[in-house]
Design brief:
By secondary structure, this protein is of the alpha+beta class. Helix 1 packs across helix 4. The longest helix has 18 residues. The protein starts with a helix and ends in a 10-residue tail after the last helix. The model has no long low-confidence stretch (mean pLDDT about 95).
Length: about 240
């Protein structure tokens, strides 16, 4: 989380696609969520708060997490915010097709079986733009969640692609449930190819700069700090 914020703050830096996974597993709260509105958070030993909005996510080893850090004027993010989601989701759909899932697409007006009230979880609340596909039982469900944060002319776009099941989100769509068993690395390689193809960019492997690592080390501690995880959310109505 600290490195993602460092990338968001790196004004003028080249566009960056970061790929990572989680160990140990953790629950990340959306920036604007109240801790008490996510029931599973109280029982989980590892809870952090993201810089991006949206619902909570249970991150685990069978998930590919990505972040995109880029200037707002980049062609992928220029114009209305929903269009940038559509562009990135099109790249994700291309990656999923490359991995053997040809039927992934935005939910649109369809109903999904993964929507569950009262959990505060990202994958239990879908929007028309959320990528979904049919589970093994044929029911449409959400399998990808993304959210953005924009600051000082930069964009941070987080995404979570579910490769395998999560005990805290059993209703969602995953690749393994429909017979596609891929590693996090293979999924990451497919996403890189899709981003290059769909967004028309050329990526180069790289590592965080020493300045970014130093900034990440300074910023990172707050994401798991109880005062930040339990912070009072402005505008939340208390009863």
């Amino acid at each position: 989380m600290g490195l993602d914020e460092a990338l968001l703050r790196s004004v003028g830096a080249p566009p960056t696609l970061r790929l990572y996974s989680w160990a140990p597993d953790a629950v990340s709260l959306g920036y604007f969520q109240a801790f008490e509105d996510v029931p599973c958070a109280a029982a989980h030993p590892h809870v952090v708060r993201r810089l991006t909005g949206g619902g909570a996510i249970h991150h685990h080893a069978r998930e590919l997490t990505f972040s995109i850090a880029v200037e707002e004027e980049d062609p992928a993010y220029r114009g209305p915010v929903p269009r940038s989601y559509e562009r990135v989701h099109a790249a994700i759909a291309r990656a999923l097709e490359d991995l053997g899932l040809p039927a992934a697409g935005d939910r649109g007006a369809c109903e999904v079986a993964s929507d569950v009230e009262g959990t505060g979880m990202c994958f239990h609340e879908s929007t028309p733009l959320d990528p979904c596909w049919a589970r093994a039982d044929g029911a449409l469900a959400k399998g990808v969640g993304t959210a953005q944060r924009r600051s000082q002319g930069r964009v941070l776009h987080h995404g979570s692609i579910k490769l395998g099941p999560s005990p805290l989100e059993p209703e969602i769509a995953t690749l393994s449930e429909v017979g596609i068993d891929v590693t996090v690395n293979a999924a990451g390689e497919a996403l890189v190819r899709a981003v290059e193809s769909v967004l028309g960019v050329r990526t180069e492997p790289g590592e965080a700069t020493s300045a970014e690592r130093d900034t990440a080390a300074t910023l990172g501690a707050r994401y798991g700090d109880p005062s930040f995880v339990h912070r009072e959310v402005r505008g939340r109505r208390k009863s």
